Amino acid sequence: MSHVVDANLSLALVLATPSSDRAQILWERWSSQQALVFAPDLWAYELTSALRKAMVVTGMNLAEAETRLEALTQLGVRLVPPTPQLDRSALRWAHRLAQTVAYDAQYLALAEFLGCDFWTADGRLAAALSPEVPWVHWVGDGDPG
Asked: pTM for the whole thing?
């Protein structure tokens, strides 16, 4: 079994968020099933940026941010580099969602290409796609959005 995860879900494993408990349960289930987890290369950049923001906003020190970044890199997420096909698909997804930027769309394009489920901690993104896209899942509680 394979899944694509976004940075929001991954960050919920190392930062206190409303989705942290559910993300941890989900990740433990995948680990026990030896599921493969994928993300576009963008995932790594988003993690680093979000941890830097957490340092500024919460006062987290550099050593703690580096420890959390190391924990994320140890998750075994398989990063997939961009291809012209994935980029075209992401452009179409961003257009469909009427998004100004195509960051979220990169994850959707990868999940679609791999034929696997996409998991996010972004309720607004999940709500924008639910129920029309059944392979998009929100790790939150209740209805997304």
From this structure: 0.94
Domain boundaries 2-79+114-138, CATH class: alpha beta
Q: Where are the domains of the chain?
A: 2-79+114-138
Per-residue pLDDT tens digits for 54-109: 999 999 999 999 999 999 999 999 999 999 999 999 999 999 999 999 999 999 99
Neighbours of 74 (CB within 10 A): 8
Contacts of residue 133, Cβ cutoff 8 Å, sequence gap at least 6: 108
Q: Is 59 left (phi over 0), alpha (psi -120 to 50) or beta?
A: left
Work out the number of other CB atoms within 10 angstroms of the CB of residue 115. Answer: 8
